[in-house]
Amino acid sequence: MFNLSSSPDAGASHIAALDLGSNSFHMIVARWDNGQLTLLDRLREPVRLGFGLQADGSLSKDARERALACLERFGECLRAYPSRSVRIVGTKTLRSISDAGEFLAAAEARLGHPVEIISGDEEARLIYLGVAHCIAPDKGNRIVMDIGGGSTEVILGAGMTPSLKESLNMGCVAITKQFFNDGKVTEKSITKALIACLQELQPVKDEFIERGWQEVLGASGSIKAVAKVCETNGWSDGAISATSLDKIIARYLDAGKLDIDMPGLSDDRKPVFLGGAIVLRALFEALQLKSMIAADWALREGLLFDQKGRLENHDIRQASVDALALRFHVNMEKATAVEKTALNLLTQVAQKWQLTARDASKLLGWAARLYQVGLDIAHNDYHKHSAYIVQHVDLAGCSRAEQTQLSALVLAHRKRFPAKNFPLDNTDLVRLAILLRLAAIFHRGRIKDGLPNISLIADGKKIKLSLPHHWLQNHPLTQADLDTEQRHLGDIGYELMVSGN
């Protein structure tokens, strides 16, 4: 999430990434040496969060306690790090639980850093990024698959860029919980599990097959565990095939239970290994795969590279915003003019309002570029359409919380302040909305002679806007808009004073 409040941010040579998955929580710490990622530490705990997801969407007490105890331990390593050096994301189970806000507050208190819940599409992008940095892409397409605890991501791409991404509702924990929760394995339960996975793949498989690929890669715990079992049992040199998957499934069927010893399989992977193998077998069948190689890197490493890009101002979110503006035919001349004015106003009040220059300017600038996207739907109440689009479209690089902040700014840029649909307790976001509203007023129509010098002074909830007296006299519509804005801001407790100089 955007950190809008300015605070001292100590420099750090290390960077950390946490993946709060449905099966395990992972943390890695690394540093950058001459442009290369050097991994310093890895921590993994099999929290099994997905097993605690109940029918009503709540999280069981046991799962919550396991998760928070793990995060308390992780937090001991992270509290000394500046927030800009840490990325923490939650995936399928955290996307699904109904009390996510309550859990996140408790998690952040233990970690000392914000947790982002990312969409399946964003999860897939980060997985592809991690794999692409692990195994250098060759010419042509590659397909990458990652079986997590609650979901499976399938990504097609070329080079460093994914072109087709799908997040499917099947994972090693989810399949185990649904079909093998009693610990028993029968031919009937295996068949049902396979059919369920094939049904999930049915709507998406044809597009992948039509595009084709030259390389098949798998990532994360389930696939790496399958590769190790294949190698340990002498079925392959580490590559995975449909035949080796059938051998794994057959061993469980012969034993009739989940709790079996298998050479190459770790104890903590045992409870969910068959579920992951069945998902992988369905992928092989639906996508007509012959062989797969396991990659060592995935989501967590992708997070590190993505964060490095942000720190070096190569932010994928900027490209996502610009692509969305282009898709909805935004008038970029007007949008960039509003952005320039809004950032000018931010510069004048940032210190007094204690707003951080980096994140506040990014969020404000992107809102200025996107507030018009709803005009492609209708002019009437277009700000509501704009907010809906920004909230629900897939913006690569953005977490749910970031899109919610961006959507709130877009919604609040005109008319009465949307008090019922805006987090008024978020003072920093309110103040950014005020700056966007003022900038939009100055660019509501085309001003042929350009804008004058605009002075803005802020002192808490008192704002003084100063313009040349003669300019105000020559622009009565802008003066009228500012008079209206005084009333709108007064409704939320802010006093806007407009004076000529």
Overview of this protein structure:
By secondary structure, the chain is an alpha/beta fold. It has 3 domains: 14-118, ATPase, nucleotide binding domain (Nucleotidyltransferase, domain 5); 121-299, Exopolyphosphatase. Domain 2 (Nucleotidyltransferase, domain 5), CATH 3.30.420.150; 315-448, Hypothetical protein af1432 (Orthogonal Bundle), CATH 1.10.3210. The protein is 50% helix and 16% strand. The protein is built from 18 helices and 13 strands. The protein has helices spanning 61-78, 92-96, 100-111, 120-134, 172-179, 187-211, 220-232, 242-255, 270-286, 299-311, 316-327, 332-353, 357-370, 382-392, 400-411, 427-442, 469-474, 476-490; strands at residues 14-20, 25-33, 36-45, 86-90, 116-117, 141-147, 152-158, 161-168, 215-219, 293-294, 455-459, 462-467, 495-500. The strands form 3 sheets. A 5-stranded mixed beta sheet has the order 3-2-1-4-5, with helices on both faces. Strand 1 and strand 2 (25-33) form a beta hairpin. The radius of gyration is 26 Å and the shape is elongated. The two termini are 40 Å apart. The mean pLDDT is 93.
Topology:
Layout: E1 14-20, E2 25-33, E3 36-45, H1 61-78, E4 86-90, H2 92-96, H3 100-111, E5 116-117, H4 120-134, E6 141-147, E7 152-158, E8 161-168, H5 172-179, H6 187-211, E9 215-219, H7 220-232, H8 242-255, H9 270-286, E10 293-294, H10 299-311, H11 316-327, H12 332-353, H13 357-370, H14 382-392, H15 400-411, H16 427-442, E11 455-459, E12 462-467, H17 469-474, H18 476-490, E13 495-500
Parallel strand pairs: 1-4, 4-5, 6-9, 9-10, 12-13
Antiparallel strand pairs: 1-2, 2-3, 6-7, 7-8, 11-12
Helix pairs in contact: 1-3, 4-10, 5-9, 6-9, 7-9, 8-9, 11-13, 12-13, 12-16, 13-15, 13-16, 14-15, 15-16, 16-18
